[in-house]
Amino acid sequence: xxxxxxxxxxxxxxxxxxxxxxxxxxxxxxxxxxxxxxxxxxxxxxxxxxxxxxxxxxxxxxxxxxxxxxxxxxxxxxxxxx
Length: 82
Hints:
Elements: E1 3-10, E2 27-32, H1 37-44, E3 53-56, E4 59-60, E5 72-76
C-alpha cells in the first residue's frame, strides 16, 4: 500500500490535541494513499468541530478533499475577536 507523507502545522490551540505538537511547527504525518482531510483529522485526534480553516499548499480545502503526497497542510480553529 502506498502512503502519503504530509507536512502539517497546527495553530491557535489545535496543537493541544496532538502529543508533542508545537504551535506552527511542522509535523510529519503519514496516511494511506487517497486519504482526505477528514482522515487526517481523525489520525491526529482533532475533532472536526474544532477546525474552521484548512489550507493545503496555501489553498482552502474541505473535509472531503483528497490530499496528495508532499502536501503542506495548515489547520486553524475558529477565531473570534473584536
